Give the backbone structure.
Amino acid sequence: MKKLEIIIRPGMFEKVKNVLTDLGVHGLNFVEIQGFGRQRGHTEVYRGATMQVDCLPKLKVEIVVHDAALDKVLEAVVTTARTGQVGDGKIFISDVLDAVRIRTGEHGEEAL
Ligand SMILES: Nc1ncnc2c1ncn2[C@@H]1O[C@H](COP(=O)(O)OP(=O)(O)OP(=O)(O)O)[C@@H](O)[C@H]1O
Ligand SMILES: [Mg+2]
């Protein structure tokens, strides 16, 4: 299993959520964050406005997926969330040791 922390522009959430659902992702968390990438201190366009700020609002979506689904999910998210402008976001990928569905006690990919 892999965990994806997907940092995107807030306006991309609906599209990304829909594409993940279409791919059979069954669970998801998201949180509103503030962050910066390489252009810290430089201007970036947010909702049509050019802003000179250290941090910009982003959304962090967290999902855990089957190993076999990873490549397809990554490609779909990248394609969906990309505008081609700086600030499109980033995806961090890590291994997940185990998962448990509390109701049934199932472990591993069965629990997803
Ligand atoms: N190395 C990092 N560690 C943790 N979070 C990061 C990192 N880089 C970027 N982020 C998060 O991702 C958001 C978007 O980053 P961003 O897309 O601007 O990355 P970038 O490396 O500057 O790429 P680009 O040049 O395309 O803008 C940041 O606001 C921050 O929340
Ligand atoms: Mg950037």
Remarks:
- The longest helix spans residues 70-81.
- The first strand starts at residue 2 and ends at 8.
